[in-house]
Design a protein that fits this description.
501 residues; nine-stranded mixed beta sheet; seven-stranded mixed beta sheet; 18 helices
Length: 501
């Protein structure tokens, strides 16, 4: 008998285990005429770990179907018709919306482990982890969690700029001490929920209960907490959206709340625009990329320097590859770089068209590079523009004669040191020697020095003299394995005073 009981208990645990849910996290929401906002809302929540959306269409008259159809076709969204028109605030808040949530809860029980019940103007924003399921792991023993609102205003915008997201445009919020921030929205375990009587709160089955972010049971039956927590997850609530949206919203609210004078609404909206909030900045770039908004940037990131110069350069620029970095030299550089996994910061003299810089940034993960070049080649500007656009703050271009720009750089960056120093500037003896000497100030004891075109007599003479003067040591020639290759570079280390030579 005991064996049977244990087997049944194990079976129950297995049934409720995370591995047997279709989704770890889904959202249930009701919407009306939200077509302009649905895509950003869905894509944002996919970005932070939501796997499925159960959406209740409440009498929409806009073209929401065309927005949602691709998600429906991919099996990411289920849409249910909820054709009940609200005739009052109480009808909406206590009947229509909770009934939709109750229907959703019952439909998804056993399918999704966690269900967030929110509106389309609310964004579940993870703070203490990269995604929401990771945060919810800390609430496994509870039937639901209520996370606080952060109310956003219109930020002085009548409409959203055409090329901007809502989350990057609306950046003004109400102060944290405002009572509106006490509101919470729920993420619940559907199988432990009885029903929903209010959009901010659900009724749980006997023995189960709801906590706030701090795991306290201090949430009332109107879905409000007595303490505001923004430490783990925040429900960013874009209540007013833009000025044009707010105008339509207040027209509807004036019918529902005729007793509230217009000045009261003005004060209410004003306090939503008092504090500049940066909490969504980290999501803007990945969300824009996910939504395909930065098409030019996406195309750029998939393009190499050769193709960029072919499309954007002057005549003849596509013929310079073999002159600056041949296929054999490129292969040898990559093989040699693999020997130095600690390289992160690279300094270069002689950007030329940028082909070597592209190798460094492409094959040295998370590396940062400063490139000095004072030449007036017609292709240098195009190459530098490409590198800055593609690699952003990983690449810095310093224009001008390196004899002057390196000392200037040192004055403004006195503590900057580089792991790899690459010299491919002028092939004259004095120019090369000056570069070797000047760059020592940007080296540390383990820095690697590569000097290009060591097979050039003037360059070789400069490197060899630097070695005899104990400026560098351990000089050795590097070249591609193929005997026909003419490119040779010198590899060396700098000598420091505390070394025993």
């Amino acid at each position: 008998m005991n064996k049977i009981f244990c087997a049944l208990l194990c079976l129950q645990v297995w049934i409720l285990s995370a591995e047997n849910y279709r989704y770890q996290l889904a959202i249930g929401a009701i919407f009306q005429d939200e077509a302009p906002y649905l895509k950003e809302w869905i894509e944002f929540h996919k970005l932070v770990g939501v796997e499925h959306f159960y959406l209740y269409n409440n009498c929409s008259t806009d073209d929401c179907q065309s927005v949602l159809q691709p998600y429906i076709d991919r099996g990411e969204v289920d849409v249910f018709d909820w054709p009940y028109q609200a005739i009052s605030w109480n009808n909406w808040i206590y009947e229509i919306q909770p009934a939709a949530y109750t229907d959703c809860i019952h439909q998804v029980a056993g399918k999704t482990k966690w269900l967030a019940l929110i509106d389309i103007d609310e964004f579940l924003t993870p703070i203490s982890a990269k995604n929401i399921p990771e945060i919810l792991k800390d609430y496994q023993e509870f039937a639901g969690v209520g996370f606080n609102w952060k109310i956003f205003g219109h930020s002085g915008l009548y409409d959203l700029p055409e090329d901007k997201l809502l989350i990057e445009s609306l950046v003004m919020t109400a102060p944290i001490d405002r009572s509106t921030q006490l509101g919470v929205k729920s993420i619940v375990r559907p199988e432990y929920v009885l029903d929903c009587k209010h959009p901010h709160y659900v009724n749980y089955k006997e023995g189960y209960y709801h906590v706030n972010s701090n795991k306290d049971r201090r949430i009332d039956h109107n879905g409000a907490s007595n303490v505001i927590y923004y430490d783990r997850l925040v429900v960013n609530h874009y209540w007013s959206r833009t000025g044009s949206f707010l105008y339509k919203k207040l027209k509807r609210y004036s019918l529902w709340f005729p007793e509230i004078i217009p000045e009261k609404w003005i004060d209410y909206v004003k306090e939503m625009n008092e504090v500049h909030d940066r909490s969504m900045e980290c999501f803007v770039a990945p969300l824009r990329k996910q939504m395909g908004l930065d098409r030019a940037q996406n195309d750029l990131e998939s393009m190499n320097l050769h193709d960029y110069l072919a499309q954007n350069g002057s005549p003849g620029e596509t013929e310079i590859d073999e002159r600056y970095v041949s296929a054999k030299q490129r292969k040898s550089f990559i093989e040699e770089l693999k020997k130095f996994p600690s390289i992160q910061k690279i300094a270069e003299i002689g950007f030329n068209a940028g082909h070597t810089a592209e190798i460094f940034l492409e094959y040295v993960n998370n590396s940062h590079m400063v490139s000095f070049d004072g030449r007036s080649h017609h292709f240098t500007k195009s190459g530098a523009e490409f590198m800055k656009s593609k690699y952003h703050d990983r690449f810095q271009f310093v224009d001008g004669d390196s004899r002057f720009t390196i000392p200037d750089f040192l004055r403004t960056n006195p503590n900057e040191k580089f792991d790899l120093i690459y010299i491919d500037d002028g092939h004259l003896f004095q120019c090369c020697l000056d570069d070797i000497v000047n760059f020592k100030q940007l080296a540390h004891e383990n820095s690697i020095l590569w000097v290009e075109d060591y097979n050039y007599p003037e360059v070789k003479r400069a490197v060899d003299l630097a070695e005899r003067l104990h400026i560098v040591k351990d000089v050795k020639a590097q070249s591609p394995k193929e005997a026909s290759e003419i490119h040779i570079w010198a590899e060396a280390r700098y000598v420091f005073q505390n070394e025993d030579d």
